[in-house]
């Protein structure tokens, strides 16, 4: 989740910028290693960029030093003519320095952007390839939000580090070093006074940032609750309005807002002095005041000539302006390091292994041979399940929630690979079938129906891109959805949004049409959990019957009456196969299935 947490005192005091919070941070050494690995191909560019930025920044100080020296020399001399050569020399040094700075900073920025474009191009290509080769189960477990974040925000943060933050940080550090070095050369006591003000600022800043991480968890939790309550309220607005149940959601929302405000307030109270001090010390007027007072005391005591005060007024007062870019740069580097850790983690995930010696299935009989699978390597979600699913038959997977039905269904298209045992299609282990061949032999009709933002026609045609319009319509007719489509504003050319314009049952029939058109011999179907109206239910059942003809069909069933005609029913319990048989056989057995059937008949859950 992206957060908009800012330093609480920001409105009043404009405190330090936001750093990546600890909740986001992978271990520091892991992220640093990742950064080194990902930047290896452009390390020469980065070194070049840093050197150019250092030289540019150093050259950029020449005009300030020149102005200070011209004033110092002019003030110290009684006759200007005698020092005119020196004054001209400093004038030239200042002008050349300013010119050089422009050229060097421009060159550094170009080099940084060139390296950035190259790296991001390579990373995008590698990431897309990697996404194409990762097990589908990873996408299910991670969610599209995480994938999107890596492809966008994380890459943007890496752009920041290569093209901006590194140059800014090195440039600002150089400016501070050169400036302080020059001031030390002029007068070490006054230089220490100037450095002292900056040091107080840095320490105060660090104190303010340290307490940020302490409060971050509370703030993040509150933000998540606010966001969840808002989504819950918006999603359920119809129910809220119809049944007036909005009060409880609003109460949760208000509580979360109160917690957020309290956490923000606590942070603001704790950091108010450090933030104010940090801002105070970084203000030019503060440095000017301290330098002038200290300088005049030194002049008064005879430790400093009046002319030597000039460099501190010109160069010293300008130093705080370099602190902010240095802080921004270091935050950019920190964020980039976190992003690099995330990108590297994605790139180093083991891809779904492709077969060394690919083989093709002979027929479409599915055999589950002592299939065992564990998500976490500790508990088995499916254990020792053996069954044969013949072509032209329907097999229903039933059982209580968490019994392992979806897990078995997701092992078939290799969303995950079995931990033990094997799954064979047409006598060939699915791990020996090339992934594209395996997936094209299956139609997956899941509950979270995936409709693309495209026309109805193209949505059906996905399964067979070269199908003619007549074939698309025939599939739609078979799936009992043709009539519905012709009633849409543009018929088959109507562009679908996120399923907009179609009911749940209609969306499911559209995906059934897609599966019918694709003609894949294996069909894996997750039956809708939400009840459809009787007409919709009849239409879906009829569409499924069309789809099933001559195929090996696996149905994850939630309502038993919809699968009572299945050829075999596998009853799962806690990942194990508890019973198997036809509806009649299982009822006669009077075991678990019979109890589930009874319970559903009487509207209770098993
Ligand atoms: N991505 C996952 N990571 C870890 N554990 C999981 C994951 N998906 C499912 N599980 C666990 O595996 C077990 C079997 O879950 P599965 O979803 O296969 O059951 P199910 O019978 O399909 O349940 P439901 O009818 O509620 O969908 C459960 O204990 C579940 O918590």
What structural keywords apply?
606 residues; alpha/beta; ABC transporter transmembrane region fold; Rossmann fold; 2 domains; six-stranded mixed beta sheet; four-stranded antiparallel beta sheet; 21 helices; 63% helix; elongated; binds adenosine-5'-triphosphate
What does this structure look like?
It is found in: Cell inner membrane. Residues 1-25 are annotated as: Disordered. Belongs to the ABC transporter superfamily. Siderophore-Fe(3+) uptake transporter (SIUT) (TC 3.A.1.21) family. The protein is an alpha/beta fold and 606 residues long. It has 2 domains: 10-347, Up-down Bundle (ABC transporter transmembrane region fold); 366-601, Rossmann fold. The protein is built from 21 helices and 10 strands. It has helices at residues 10-13, 28-39, 43-60, 62-76, 84-133, 136-186, 188-235, 237-243, 246-282, 284-300, 306-318, 320-347, 405-411, 435-440, 456-461, 469-478, 482-486, 504-518, 534-548, 583-589, 592-601, and strands at 366-373, 382-389, 394-398, 420-425, 428-429, 442-445, 522-526, 552-556, 568-573, 576-581. Strands 6-7-8-3-9-10 form a 6-stranded mixed sheet, with helices on both faces. Strand 9 (568-573) and strand 10 (576-581) form a beta hairpin. Bound molecules: adenosine-5'-triphosphate.
């Amino acid at each position: 989740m992206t957060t908009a947490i800012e330093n609480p005192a920001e409105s009043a005091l404009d405190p330090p910028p936001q750093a990546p919070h600890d909740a986001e941070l992978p271990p520091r050494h892991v992220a640093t290693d990742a950064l080194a690995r990902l930047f290896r191909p452009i390390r020469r560019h980065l070194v070049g960029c840093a050197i150019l930025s250092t030289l540019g920044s150093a050259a950029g100080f020449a005009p300030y030093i020149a102005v200070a020296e011209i004033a110092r020399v002019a003030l110290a001399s009684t006759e200007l003519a005698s020092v005119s050569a020196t004054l001209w020399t400093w004038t030239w040094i200042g002008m050349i320095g300013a010119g050089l700075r422009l050229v060097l900073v421009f060159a550094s920025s170009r080099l940084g952007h060139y390296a950035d474009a190259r790296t991001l191009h390579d990373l995008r290509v590698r990431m897309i390839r990697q996404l194409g080769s990762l097990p589908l189960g990873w996408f299910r477990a991670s969610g599209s939000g995480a994938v999107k974040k890596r492809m966008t925000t994380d890459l943007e943060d890496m752009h920041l580090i290569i093209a901006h933050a590194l140059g800014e940080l090195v440039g600002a550090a150089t400016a501070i070093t050169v400036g302080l070095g020059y001031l030390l050369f002029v007068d070490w006591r006054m230089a220490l006074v100037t450095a002292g003000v900056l040091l107080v600022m840095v320490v105060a800043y660090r104190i303010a940032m340290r307490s940020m991480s302490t409060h971050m968890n509370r703030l993040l939790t509150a933000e998540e609750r606010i966001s969840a309550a808002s989504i819950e309220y918006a999603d359920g607005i119809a129910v809220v309005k119809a049944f007036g149940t909005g009060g409880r959601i609003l109460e949760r929302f208000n509580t979360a807002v109160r917690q957020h405000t309290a956490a923000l307030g606590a942070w603001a109270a704790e950091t108010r002095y450090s933030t104010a001090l940090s801002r105070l010390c970084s203000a030019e007027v503060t440095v000017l005041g301290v330098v002038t007072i200290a300088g005049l005391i030194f002049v008064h005591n005879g430790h400093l000539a009046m002319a030597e005060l000039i460099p501190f007024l010109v160069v010293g007062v300008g130093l705080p302006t370099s602190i902010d870019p240095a802080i921004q740069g270091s935050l950019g580097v920190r964020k980039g390091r976190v992003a690099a850790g995330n990108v590297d983690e994605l790139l180093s995930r083991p891809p779904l292994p492709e077969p060394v010696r690919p083989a093709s299935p002979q027929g479409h009989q599915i055999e589950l041979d002592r299939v065992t699978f564990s998500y976490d390597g500790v508990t088995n979600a499916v254990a020792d399940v053996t069954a044969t699913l013949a072509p032209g038959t329907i097999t229903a997977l039933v059982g209580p929630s968490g019994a392992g039905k979806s897990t078995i269904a997701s092992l078939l298209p290799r969303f995950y690979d079995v931990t033990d045992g094997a799954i064979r299609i047409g006598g060939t282990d699915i791990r020996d079938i090339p992934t594209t061949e395996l997936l094209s032999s299956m139609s997956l009709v899941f509950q979270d129906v995936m409709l693309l933002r495209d026309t109805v026609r193209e949505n059906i045609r996905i399964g067979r891109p070269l199908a003619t319009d007549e074939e698309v319509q025939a599939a739609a007719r078979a799936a009992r959805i043709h009539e519905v489509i012709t009633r849409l504003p543009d018929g088959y050319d109507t562009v679908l949004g996120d399923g907009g314009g179609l009911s749940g049952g209609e969306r499911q029939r559209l995906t059934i049409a897609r599966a019918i058109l694709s003609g894949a011999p294996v069909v894996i179907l997750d039956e809708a959990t939400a009840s459809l109206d009787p007409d919709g239910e009849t239409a879906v059942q009829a569409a499924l019957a069309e789809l099933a003809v001559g195929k090996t069909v696996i149905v994850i069933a939630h309502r038993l009456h919809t699968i009572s005609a299945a050829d075999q029913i596998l009853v799962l319990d806690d990942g194990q196969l508890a019973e198997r048989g036809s509806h009649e056989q299982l009822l006669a057995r009077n075991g678990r299935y019979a109890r589930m059937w009874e319970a559903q008949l009487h509207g209770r859950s098993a």
